[in-house]
Amino acid sequence: MTAVTATYRRVIALGGPLLPVISFLGRLPTAMCQLGSLLLVAETSGSLTTAGLVGGALAAGQTVAGPLIGRLADRHGQRPVVLAACWANALLVTALVVASLAHLATLPLALIGLLAGASVPQIGPLARTRLVALARRAPAGDRGQPKPLIGAALSLEGTLDEVSFVLGPALVGLAAAVAHPAVALALAAVLLAVCGTAFALHPTASVPGARRVVDAHAAGTERPARARMPGAVHGMRVSMGLQGAMFGACQAGITALTERLHQPAQAGLVYAAMGVMSAVSGLSLALVPARIALPTRWRVAAAALIVLSVPLLFVRSLWALYLVVVVLGVAFAPHLITLFGLTERVVPATRLAESMAFLTSAVVGGQALALAASGRLADAHGPSAAFAVAVGAAVLILGVAITARVSSRTTAPVDGATSAAATPAGSGRSASADRRP
Fold first, then answer.
1. Measured distance CA(102)–CA(111) in Å, rounded
2. What H or E segment, with its residue span, contains residue 399?
3. Ordered domains of the chain (ranges, CATH)
4. Which residue has the higher pLDDT, 418 or 5?
5. What sign results for the dihedral spanned by CA atoms 40, 45, 47, 50?
6. Interatomic CA distance for residues 382 and 256, integer angstroms
7. What DSSP string describes 219-230?
8. Percent of the chain scored above 70 by pLDDT?
9. For residue 95, what are the contacts with CB-CB under 8 A and spacing of at least 6?
10. How far apart are the first and last CA of the chain?
11. Is the dihedral of CA 244, 284, 165, 262 positive or negative?
């Protein structure tokens, strides 16, 4: 365990202790806005249908525009993109609060929600991209490879994501209970403006490979042709979308079961318990031996999702629900972090931020679609119907993991201009050498 602690200390030292703090606080509003907008619009309009439409529009905007923001960061650098996005997002979230309190009609509310989702600054994926770039440039490990440090960086970022998606809804629920949902969204807007700006201006914003392409172009080097994605990436994105579907189906099933047990207030706590266990298992991934290849980890995690989700079909009491979802949480983070690790390994260095953002958007899109569909199934056929959607998604994940053609020794192509710009002066090694599997 001492070695693991030392590894995470090295990861935090890559960008300094302030970076994970501001990146965590900067991504927290994303976790707050989905539930916050739902509660706010439901209270101000008196219509769950309107609230669902606005929440769906917000999720749709983030799903579609997330990869675009990542692509812009790859092409122009993170600093200008994050600055523009975080301030636009803060203003649009504020506009949603004002419009809701002013009792505007459904269409303008949904339009504002769509724009708010589209302007999410993607701080989580971009922070992950920064740490990966820093880990590649770090001194080699005991075997001459930076891979263990990259894995630990992805585990840390995955844990921050999990904690944010536990704490975010909890803050919204607390604000709604003590004051008003508008307070939660106002706090989200402040965090976006302050911490998003701090994240954009942090010195590490100039580190990722996207900045190198811009620097090479500014130095007079011709911009390289846009690198193509390996076919395996599409399977990873599908798997991540199915993971989001599991989240949405579990959320619907948990909500339906706690209502049936006349304890609806427990739904958030149950879901939070699952998230906490997922975060713990994410940090524990640093203990997995490096000899276990990423494709193998993907398949094992997929199989674990099936085995640990099947008991949901038979849960009938609150204590059993807590037990089953906590155990199920053990498999979530390993699957997510493994997919991020595989993506880092196979995508072109010049499209890493876009790829990371695409994975996050896939989770959001899958969760929104599954929540809507499984919620209706739960209303018509009970909680087990929603949980069956989660089990079905897990089965499909295993199918994708087995059929995907991805090698643990695949390396991402790096164009010559980028490699040259990526190599620190006097380092004596190329960027492609830093991407050895």
1. 15
2. helix 383-403
3. 12-218 (1.20.1250.20), 229-411 (1.20.1250.20)
4. 5
5. negative
6. 7
7. TTPPPPPPPPPP
8. 86
9. 112, 116
10. 24
11. positive
